DNA sequence: TATTGTTATACTCTATAACTATA
DNA sequence: TATAGTTATAGAGTATAACAATA
């Protein structure tokens, strides 16, 4: 018999894997990678430093330089120097990046609806609670 | 105001990103990659063909060859030829791979407990049901 | 001295196209 | 002819170590 935490872990792992497949498909169709879509989504409500981005994405800060370069080359993001600490660089969506991100989110939402659209209210509430509880 | 699907998508994206960070940290500590951990987890209850593995992991089948090679080199998985169709190869956990996977799952569960441990029982049950319902 | 972002390097993940073996 | 896995190739993600600029 499984403990409550093991059961929760198994469910979260499966959600993670299915979302990874969805993001990969959407990214492929848009000529991007899943990691790039994730970065665009993270930037939607934030203007983080490179170090903060690394922590948000769960990777080393040395990776952020190259990812930012590749997204900047496509005109989706732009570097912004922090005036209060000249060591710090922040990343921002461009207007193009923001509208492109909106299009991507619509594609992801369509795939989510197809895959999870038959969810009952309790499951949806649980998912919402999962992420909202941690913001307080 | 957000639609129900948009809200669900946002929650799933956030769960995905946080699980990605957790898996990355656990993988780093174990000298593996997040993708390798995912493959070991997928193999726990299945013995899929390479094509099925590609679909489960949301990537092209050409990637599976190299991933299987690298995990086999560490003695964690083993190829198995399907006797009914000699074109098909299936992948299996070795005994070592299974016990190693159990250790990894314990690390992931510990991180999940720390991050999501304040969830109430109803939310946990709903989340567990989230993925079980879809198997029927 | 410590921190932030960068560069150099090596390995892994990823998709596309072409290939071999089997059906 | 069609399908399963492989190989070759190129680009992207990843961590470690060393570095320049700033604090």
UniProtKB/TrEMBL annotation, chains A, B:
SMART domains: HTH_MARR (SM00347). Keywords: DNA-binding, Transcription, Transcription regulation. InterPro entries: HTH_MarR-typ (IPR000835), MarR/SlyA-like (IPR039422), Tscrpt_reg_MarR-type_CS (IPR023187), WH-like_DNA-bd_sf (IPR036388), WH_DNA-bd_sf (IPR036390). Residues 5-136 form the HTH marR-type domain. Pfam families: MarR. It comes from the Bacteria. This is HTH marR-type domain-containing protein. It comes from Pseudonocardia eucalypti.
